[in-house]
Model the fold of this input.
Amino acid sequence: MVARGKPAPDLFLYAAQRLETAPEYCLVVEDSPAGIDAAGAAGMTAIGFCGGSHCGPDHGARLQDRGAALVIADMRELATALAKLG
Done:
């Protein structure tokens, strides 16, 4: 559906276009450093997710280092994270 995959922003920009929403109004929840990079390149806010079984103990810090606005380890934390972002 897009020419380039992550870390290029193409996929996220395509999704925003399909939703008829400006990228700056989009939020991405991502568990990969490349996805965090792609969200940033698209001009979107990213929340890092480090709760997957493939995530090691330093995974959340890596996502934050790449530009995640916040990092959560459980999807039940998402509502609280959204409230923090305003």
In short: Helices lie at 10-18, 33-42, 59-66, 78-85.
